[in-house]
Structures are given as structure tokens and as C-alpha cells.
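User: Hey, my collaborator sent me this sequence without any context and asked if I could get a structure. I don't really work with proteins. Can you help?
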Amino acid sequence: MRLIITTVLVALKIKLLACSGCNVSTGLVNNDPVNYLSLKYRNTVFDGVESSFFRHTGHGGALSESYSNYDFSAKYFFYKNWYAQGIFSYQQVKLQSDSSTNFVNGLTDPYLFLGYNDYETFQNWQLNYNIFGGLDFGIGSYNTGYGHEYSAGSKSYDGLVGFELLAKFKKVGFSLKNNIKFNANNKENYLFGNGVNGSFLFLYYLEKENLMYIPFIGSTYEWNLQDKLVDDLILNTSSEVLFFDIGINFLFKERLLIGGKYQIGFYDNVPGWESINISGFEIELSYILGS
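Assistant: No problem. I've predicted the 3D structure and written it out in C-alpha cell form, which is a compact way to encode the shape of the chain:
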């Protein structure tokens, strides 16, 4: 159970547009080879001025898009270092312009992963590694009344592969995560753009009696390609954002973990906006069942 001290809130904020065509958030304790349950609230806000004839209102002006996700995740080791992991989520989208406010809510496509998670110890440091792959099942709520990009579900079965590394030397740690989402056409011949996500964090470990707290800083890079309808690219559906991340984790008695993170975008390339500010935060509660 001492492996839990390497736990880090590296929630990859992989749902840049919070759509089913984007990636997933792997959660707090995912670097460690332990069974756990997790509840998470995630929110990302795009706030700015849209271009004229953009896909939202079409007349330009102020626009705010707020994406909230309520996630439940479970990870279970069924044979030695091999595990299965499921992620289930409910999404709420708020679209607010100078002329209207609209909401798009629904269940997202559930994910099922299979992975291999282990660690190696050396003279003065430890390395945790996690390799995984799986599918999302296109059974979520498919609501395209305000555009495909706001739909919680995709009606397609999509693949995702990724890896996670965490190195710890005494009180200092470094975390690296990366994954790629490969999307497929749904029955309407709509294809959500593939997504790439990576993050790097610097961590510092502090411990007092039964409490460990781990502040961290770093950055996350997110890149989503354009959507397609049949063979035609859909304008203003790609995005590229680089975030600055800051947060902290609290681990109680190596069982209960509470963490939070704030993100602010300091570089972005999001077509369809004349100007934009992007920010996000998340809060997670995880209970570790054991190794």
C-alpha cells in the first residue's frame, strides 16, 4: 500500500470540447497498481467572441460554452498486473450568447479499458508504469439539435490507447501521460475528429502522520482534429490548447484521496472564435480498495 504515495491528480482534461469524439479523464490513482472507485466533477469553460457565421449563433458576438461532467470510474485487477477499468459519465452543456441560453444534457458513451500496471524500484527512486487500451460504446445520448459537437453520445464505437509514467525520487515526482483517441463513423456517416492528449507534471510529496499532501504544477496539451460528414471536413471543429495546471491531492490513511486541479489556457488555436479564454477545474474523491 505504500505505493499509494505516488498517487497524483493528473486528470487529463481530455474532453476539450466535452464531446464523445474527444478523449477521457483517467483520474487520480490511475498510476498506481491498486483497485479503486472514483467520483469526479469536471468543468471546462470557453468564453469569448465568436466569429460571424460560426456554427453556434451565426451572427457573431459574445458566447460562453460551459461543459460539466460527472464521472464514475472503477478499476479492478483480475490477474496479477492486468486490470479492467470502466468509466461512466453524465454531461451537462450550457450555451449562452447575447440572445439566448440553451442546455444540452445526457449520458456519454461508457468506456471499458484493459491494461497492464506495475512498478519498478531502484536504489533511490521508483517508476510506476501503466499501458492501456479499450473502446467507448456508442450508446450514450445522441442529441444534435445544437450541433454534433455538443452531443453527449456519438453512436460510434471508438478506440483509445495510452500510457502513464510516474517517477519518484525521495520527495520529488514527475508524471507523464499521453493517449490517442481513434474515432469511427457512426450510422449517420458523421466522424468526430481524432484526439491527442499529453501532460507533464512536477510533484512534491509531504507527509504528516496519517495524511499525505501532494501539490503539483505542470501543463497539458490537447489537440483534436476536424470532424467529417461522409468525406467532407466540418469547419470550426478542430482545436489545439496548451494549459497551465496547478493543484493538490490529500491522501488519508492510504485509503481516501481528495484532490482538485485548476487549468488556465495560455496557448490556443480554436477556429471560429475572434477571441477566447479557456479555463477549467475538477474535484475528485477516490477510495482505494487495495492492491
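In plain terms: The two ends are 7 Å apart (CA to CA). You can pass these C-alpha cells on to your collaborator as they are.
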